[in-house]
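We modelled the chain as a single entity of 170 amino acids. Its sequence is:
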Amino acid sequence: MDLKEKIRVIPDFPKEGVSFKDITTLLKDGPVFQQAVYRLAEMCRGKEIDLIVGPEARGFLIGAPLACVLGVGFVPVRKRGKLPGETVSAQYELEYGNDWLEIHSDAITPGQRVMVVDDLLATGGTIFATMDLIKRLRGEIVGLAFLIELTDLLGRDNLKGYDVVSLIKY
């Protein structure tokens, strides 16, 4: 099954010149979504993962089911002000400014082995902020997994030294 065929590409969204990769068409097809999660799980096996960490919001959609299949916990990374407990924050750059991500300060025990999972690797900005939070909680990043990778944006090049896997490449 070619998972790329299940991704809807929307030209000029959210602005002219951008070719948006819409994963909702994959998510709504149960057997295809299951296949995508199982394929990612196979790519992640053998890494002795304790936790999956996924950034808001689409990282939840891929990370939580992956954690379930692997039998490990899931930790959400949220936008500022969304988590109820004590948090640690990291700032990251957006196209037109900055934003913040947060994680509960007790979400990761020092030394826990963490796999970061998101729907898409572009330039790596969100992932860098997520990785910063994990490192500040003294978690060990064992890899980064993505449903989609936009190879022209060279995000993988910015993640040298980390084990990066992706299912679909554009």
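As a brief sanity check on the tokenised model: The longest helix spans residues 30-44. The helical segments are 24-27, 30-44, 58-70, 125-136.
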